[in-house]
DNA sequence: GTTCTTACA
DNA sequence: TGTAAGGA
């Protein structure tokens, strides 16, 4: 994908062929989506060969996800952008609140999230074989 | 060998 | 949207 390792993630440039292989979206679609203004390739005045940023790679994958769900291209793009905005809030929330994460099963993605305190109790997010849920626990005394 | 544009069944 | 053509 890269001959020289980029110093920053923003320096990463991915060819259209790789974007196709990774996302499952055809080159024809990628060019069409760009023509419609849904995505953009890095503009290089010296070359007509398209290169994409990591951001766009994710966006393409996201749009593809919603298309596979049955949405039209236009709707899938809306969904993707809406999702992106929502996740921004989720990330900030988690960064602010998340105190500690205990991994109980790496492969299955199980674990416990320490999400702070509420009403004098610890708020814990649980993810295990029974699904995801919250639990309130008494503050540990030392 | 890959990507580009244009055109069409 | 896929695919073929013809050039870069």
Characteristics of this structure?
2 domains, 4 helices, DNA-binding, alpha+beta, four-stranded antiparallel beta sheet, 142 residues, Multidrug-efflux Transporter Regulator, Chain: A, Domain 2
Provide structural commentary.
A hairpin with a 2-residue loop joins strand 4 and strand 5 (121-128). The chain folds into two domains: 9-90, Multidrug-efflux Transporter Regulator, Chain: A, Domain 2; 98-138, no CATH class. With 142 residues, it is α+β, with helices and mostly antiparallel strands. The chain has a four-stranded antiparallel beta sheet, with no helix packed on it. A two-stranded antiparallel sheet has the order 1-2. Helices cover 40% and strands 25% of the residues. It binds a DNA duplex (9 and 8 nucleotides) through residues 15-17, 26-29, 31-32, 48-50.
Gist of the model:
By secondary structure, this protein is of the alpha+beta class.
How do the strands and helices of this protein lay out in sequence?
Blueprint (H helix, E strand, L loop, with lengths): L13 E2 H8 L3 H9 L15 E2 L1 H15 L4 H25 L2 E6 L4 E9 L2 E8 L2 E8 L4
This protein binds a DNA duplex (9 and 8 nucleotides) through α2.
Protein name: MerR family transcriptional regulator
Pfam families: MerR_1
InterPro entries: DNA-bd_dom_put_sf (IPR009061), MerR-type_HTH_dom (IPR000551)
Distance between the termini: 53 Å
Q: Any idea of the CATH topology of the largest domain?
A: Multidrug-efflux Transporter Regulator, Chain: A, Domain 2
Global outline: elongated
Order of helices and strands: EHHEHHEEEE
CATH architecture of the largest domain: Orthogonal Bundle
What is the structural class?
alpha+beta
- Overall pLDDT metric: 94
Strand content: 15-25%
Give the CATH level 1 class of the largest domain.
Mainly Alpha
Helix content: 40-55%
Number of strand elements: 6
Helical segment count: 4
Q: Could you describe the largest sheet, including whether it forms a barrel? A: 4 strands, antiparallel
Question: Are there runs of 5+ residues with pLDDT below 50, and where?
Answer: none
Q: How many domains make up the 3D coordinates?
A: 2
- Widest beta sheet: strand line-up: 3-4-5-6
Instruction: Write down the Rg.
Output: 21 Å
